[in-house]
Design goal:
Strand content: 25-35%
CATH class: Alpha Beta
Oligomer: single chain
Number of helices: 2
Distance between the termini: 42 Å
């Protein structure tokens, strides 16, 4: 009986860990970037559409770069079982948006990966 209880507890622990996920950053709608019009869309409009950026950098020439990023890492039961093959389940979404000194959108660099 004691062995059955211990096995049930271990199974419950493994199932609980199986659904764990870690998120860094705040999710944003990367596809909305396609709707931004160079030299027309303002930085305020971009922030209204995507939320506050994770990072903002202003260069000496007055141009600004906003960085949006979210990383989601999900674990599986195999991550906690010795000698089980490790399978990474991580997704990373980055957008770098560039603005001129007047706060008008210039261009974006979008990066998305699933590992």
């Amino acid at each position: 009986m004691k062995g059955m209880l211990k096995g049930t507890m271990m199974l419950g622990l493994l199932l609980g860990l199986a659904g764990c996920a870690t998120t860094i950053g705040k999710d944003f709608n990367q596809s909305a970037v396609q709707g931004f019009v160079p030299h027309q869309t303002t930085m305020d409009q971009v922030i209204a559409a995507l939320g506050q950026p994770q990072e903002r950098e202003t260069e000496s020439d007055g141009t600004t770069r906003l960085h949006y990023q979210v990383i989601v890492s999900k674990s599986s039961v195999g991550d906690y079982v010795p000698f089980a093959p490790v399978k990474a389940n991580t997704s990373d979404k980055d957008s770098y948006l560039y603005f001129d000194r007047n706060g008008k959108y210039l261009r974006a660099e979008n990066i998305q990966s699933n590992q």
